[in-house]
């Protein structure tokens, strides 16, 4: 009989990722918009793919994603607290900084 070991490194639920970068709405835009994308995903490859799809749906033509990580604590301050809750509910939350 095969027994699957209990591995502490494998989470029971998908992780909440935060991806930090810059997105561009127009062709030739050199400034771009600073963004944070928060979402649930089983791994970082899926998180990046879903973030890029969500950015495209919002009208961004291009994105430079600089950092990716997982959130270990619930953020206390807005807009990240609401975005975190949205990610837990299955949404892809895009935070734009002007």
Account of the 3D structure:
The chain is of the alpha+beta class. 23% of the residues lie in helices and 34% in strands. It has 2 helices and 4 strands; from the N terminus they run E-E-H-E-H-E. The chain has helices spanning 44-57, 80-88, and strands at residues 15-24, 33-41, 62-70, 93-97. It has a 4-stranded antiparallel sheet. Strand 1 and strand 2 form a beta hairpin. The longest helix is centred in the middle third of the chain and has 14 residues, at 44-57. The chain is globular and about 40 Å long. Mean pLDDT is 89; it is low at 1-7.
How is this fold's topology laid out?
Blueprint: E1 15-24, E2 33-41, H1 44-57, E3 62-70, H2 80-88, E4 93-97
Antiparallel strand pairs: 1-2, 1-3, 2-4
Described by the principal axes of the CA atoms, the overall outline is: globular
Average pLDDT figure: 89
Count, helices:
2
Instruction: For the record, give the distance between the C-alpha atoms at the N and C termini, rounded to a whole number.
Output: 58 Å
Approximate helicity band: 10-25%
How many strands appear in the DSSP assignment? 4
Keywords:
about 100 residues, alpha+beta, 4-stranded antiparallel β-sheet, 2 helices, globular
Short description:
It is built from two helices and four strands, in the order ββαβαβ. It has 98 residues and is of the alpha+beta class. Mean pLDDT is 89; it is low at 1-7.
């Amino acid at each position: 009989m095969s027994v699957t070991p209990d591995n502490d490194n494998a989470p029971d639920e998908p992780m909440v990722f935060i991806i930090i970068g810059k997105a561009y709405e127009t062709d030739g835009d050199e400034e771009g918009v600073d963004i944070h994308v928060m979402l649930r995903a089983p791994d970082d490859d899926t998180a990046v793919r879903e973030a890029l799809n969500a950015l495209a749906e919002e009208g961004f033509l291009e994105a430079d994603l600089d950092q990716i990580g997982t959130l270990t604590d619930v953020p206390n301050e807005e807009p990240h607290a609401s975005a975190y809750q949205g990610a837990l509910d299955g949404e892809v939350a895009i935070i734009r900084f002007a």
